[in-house]
Design brief:
This protein has 361 residues and is an alpha/beta fold. The protein is built from 14 helices and eleven strands. The strands form three sheets. A seven-stranded mixed sheet has the order 1-2-9-6-5-3-4, with helices on both faces. The chain has a two-stranded antiparallel ribbon with strand order 7-8. Strand 5, helix 4 and strand 6 form a beta-alpha-beta unit.
Amino acid sequence: MKELQIKINATQETSYPIFIEENILNNAYEYINKYTKANRFLLITNDKVYSLYGEKLKNKNTEILILPDGEAYKNMDTLNLIIDKAIEIKLERTDAIIALGGGVTGDTAGFAASIYQRGIDFIQIPTTLLAQVDSSIGGKVAVNHKYGKNMIGSFYQPKLVLADISTLNTLDERQFKTGLAEVLKYAFIEKSCLADKDYKLFEFLDSNHNEILNKNSAILKELISICCELKSSVVNKDEKEKGLRSILNFGHTYAHAIEKLTNYEKYTHGEAVSIGMRLIFDLALKEKFISIEYYNSCINLINKYRLKTDYEENFDKEQFYKTMQSDKKVKNSNINFVMPIKEKEVKLTNNIDKKIIVGGI
């Protein structure tokens, strides 16, 4: 059993544990009841996840709401479905919402928990690699708007995170690689995370790629733990993205535009991120932020995991740029990029010329 602690501002109210283990869902309520005082629960999930794991979370104190799956449903309509259900079953302030699923479920259910009766307890049970290493940690909860991704949301920390790595065995190759894109992101920003130790994630990914792609449970447990430690290091220092936490958006500025322009239907989030990382590496090389040697080593690692690096669309450059300008990371009308500058290090920059930004599109 791996147990990590998120210690935001060193306060008990916003600190919580992450448990990483196989088959932890079999005893989920032992952990939930230890870290919450809730008497009743509203479980939010989707059809596929419920069919696989729903029985493990069923009990007399838990109501279940099954939502449609996919980024296209991460919106206000879905949020209202959750709020309507909570009101219908008379969920109280002392009760809790449980998110069982991937990033879309966790983000939407978490946002609902943050605003229902001004905030009730929230438990994250991520069942995808992407959610286990990234979206379930740190309290970012939101829904999308027609003008941009995650434009409506809040920072709201869960009471605990239960990461059952056995759920990864049911992911198809595409969904597993979606999570690997976020994993590789940490390898490219590790030194900038200001962690207490050097996890050598880049080297770990390079030397264990076969075991990871074959879902070796011991290796996956170690991999997920490292990613959670790195994200925890960042979130503990900057909960609400005033500075440092922005580095977690590496590759995401391009990615969010790609997702928006394809209506969140063509590419998974991880596919868009891996394309976005390739584009930002290209930009960094062109502008001489990084050496050709470092560029090649990073692109080789992305290719080693057979992640998506190209898109099929012929995007209009002007439209692409306008879409990037609507991203929530824009400040004073300038587009902020998390730019690689040397091995495993990045920095924020917003002085890149428009023609250069869309030059590779």
